[in-house]
Design goal:
The chain is α/β, with parallel strands linked by helices. The protein contains eight helices and eight strands. Helix 4 runs parallel beside helix 6 and helix 7 runs parallel beside helix 8.
């Protein structure tokens, strides 16, 4: 595993649990609003010192009886072939494990869930299908086997799998004024109809964002107002009764 950092204590990243958060390096998306550009963009990897697995598990050993769980995030953790072994070691030490994922690797997701290696999954839903590639920073062409088309199929597979309720899960969407409209949220709600939980999160501008390719800036992306989020949430509730606003 390529571990790029560790947050030793979090009350937010693992719902209902006192946990730590470990960040993996590398991602197959380039969401312009992502605030972890140093984990996503290869050119920003240089000079950073990776956290060794030995150091991470030594830390976990020292937190037995103090922390309940570990949130594994990124980047995109499912890009790492040794993720099952990494999660297995966390579980063997007696910790709960939560996985954050963008859902583009349904095979890995199904493997670790079916093996009982995670106790909770949070999957990001970037936008309505028609705007997914733009929001995820993926080139979109008309070719049937384009990266955007493959991504969409994989994401649908991951959504369908999680909605089988094999493991506690949530969907979550970072709402960006300039990328998301109320109509987009309603379209997503229809897509996720019947989901166990869906959270709309407020975008927070940052200098650490990825930005749009070649733009050198983040266009006109701004944070939606609290009222905008609440209105979106109310519109979505017809299809996903458990949708909630988070972070306002």
């Amino acid at each position: 595993m390529r571990l790029a950092g560790l947050q030793k204590l979090t009350l937010l990243d693992y719902p209902g649990q006192l946990a730590c958060t470990v960040f993996t390096q590398g991602c197959n998306m380039r969401c312009p609003f992502c605030q972890n550009a140093d984990l996503v963009l290869p050119e920003r990897f240089e000079g950073g010192e990776l956290l060794t697995e030995d150091a991470f598990f030594s830390f976990l050993e020292s937190r037995k009886g103090k922390l309940a769980g570990v949130a594994v995030t990124g980047g995109e953790p499912t890009l790492h072939a040794d993720l099952p072994q990494f999660l297995g070691r966390i579980r063997e030490m007696g910790f709960l494990a939560k996985l954050d994922t963008n859902g583009t690797n349904p095979g890995m997701l199904e493997q670790i869930v079916k093996a009982g290696l995670v106790n909770y999954v949070a999957m990001d839903i970037k936008n309505a299908p028609s705007k997914y590639a733009l929001t995820a920073g993926i080139p979109q062409t008309q070719a049937e086997e384009s990266p955007a088309a493959r991504m969409q199929r994989n994401i649908q597979q991951s959504i369908s799998f999680l909605m089988e309720d094999r493991v506690p899960y949530e969907f979550r969407t970072t709402v960006v004024d300039g990328l998301h409209t109320k109509e987009d949220i309603v379209c997503m709600a229809k897509w996720l109809e019947g989901a166990r939980a869906w959270y709309l999160q407020q975008f927070i501008p940052s200098e650490r964002m990825v930005g749009f390719p070649g733009s050198g800036e983040c266009m006109n992306m701004t944070a939606p107002s609290s009222q905008q989020l609440l209105d979106m949430c109310e519109a979505a509730r017809r299809y996903v009764p458990n949708v909630q606003v988070r972070g306002v």
